[in-house]
Amino acid sequence: MRDEALAEPVSACCGPARAEGEGVAIIAEPVLASVETRVDGSTKGMVLLPGGSFLMGATDSEGFAADGEAPVRAVTLRPFWIDTAAVTNARFAAFVAATGYTTDAERFGWSFVFSGLLPDDFPQTRGVAAAPWWRQVMGACWRQPEGTDSSWEGRAEHPAVHLSWRDAVAFCKWEGTRLPTEAEWEYAARGGLEQARYPWGNALTPGGHQMCNIWQGTFPSQNTLDDGFLGTAPVTAFAPNGFGLSNTSGNVWEWCRDWFSPTFHANGPRKNPAGPRTGQARVIRGGSYLCHRSYCNRYRVAARSSNTPDSSTGHAGFRCARDA
User: 140: which residues sit within 8 A by CB, 6+ positions away?
Assistant: First the structure.
């Protein structure tokens, strides 16, 4: 492979994107056509949330103005079901076994992997110019998270990663579910706490206790592993929030249904908002095991980022929702 910088991503630190023009034929392919919907109405592993009004977003001083977290606004939602945890490798494997589905990472032949998870003698690969810790690894996909010499075995209850937005939608179609809207995701992630910074409150480590899987130490050179994990953690590794949802801060970014816009929500709808009608990237929420306050404190519950629908990384997964 060439040792050169990949094109600028949508959001270098949070969601490196495939360069424009790569895999155009794949992007145009209707990947959902061969996925048969399995509608059984099951809500196993989900929690029913009552909806109602909540305060969504954060002030510019709390977050990143360019991300469009502000303003804080009252949003009203109808009741809905949502997974208590991200989709696991075991759960995604069952989908693939039933449908023969091939993910975008497998179609492209590569995905983005954090360099700190690769062995010291790993062959040189292309990196992202604005975030050189992201490497293009041939063969990396949900089955082989760090490339051809790795496997998801032993990580059955870890979140499935290297999944694009399109892959997440295909899984949801098969299951008879859907991705949560961004507003539903934030409402659920807050766990009933009004305007708290995190799902458990305002202190990152209350009483010195690690509450989520993010980076500790100096990014990207040293991780002290105070939370016990270098990469992903099991989907229920940390205490759930007040609604029973696990890992809505850290571990993996989670895809939402909405197109991303930094300005739409300022004057957008306040009842069951679903984002703009069109866009270039989809919303991702929650942060990941790579987030660190020195450069990216997007593990806050109001924080948001985005990536293109066909892009995949080793720190992106999803959870499902269902209409009540």
Answer: 105, 110, 111, 112, 113, 146, 147, 162, 314
pLDDT per residue as tens digits for the range 120-149: 999 888 888 888 899 999 999 999 999 999
Whether 11 is covered by a domain: the verdict is yes
- Tell whether 215 is covered by a domain: yes
Residue 215's CATH number: 3.90.1580.10
Nearest alpha-carbon partner for 319 in 241, 206, 228: 241
What is the distance between the alpha carbons of residues 2 and 218, in angstroms, rounded to a whole number?
Answer: 29
Answer yes or no: is pLDDT of 1 > 50: no
**Per-residue confidence band for 34, with pLDDT thresholds at 50, 70 and 90:** low
HSE-CB at 203 with a 13 A cutoff on CA atoms is 6
pLDDT tens digits, 77-100:
999 999 999 999 999 999 999 999
Query: Could you tell me if 287 and 324 are in contact, meaning their C-beta atoms sit under 8 angstroms apart?
Result: no
User: What domain range is 145 assigned to?
Assistant: 5-16+53-323
Residue 34 located in a structural domain: no
> Number of folded domains in the chain?
1
- The span from the first CA to the last CA of the chain, in angstroms, equals 49
Inside any domain, residue 37:
no
CA–CA gap between residue 149 and residue 85 (Å, rounded): 28
Across the chain, what does the average pLDDT equal?
A: 90
Q: Buried b / exposed e across 177-194, counting CB within 10 Å, b at 16+?
A: bbbbbbbbbbbbbbbebe
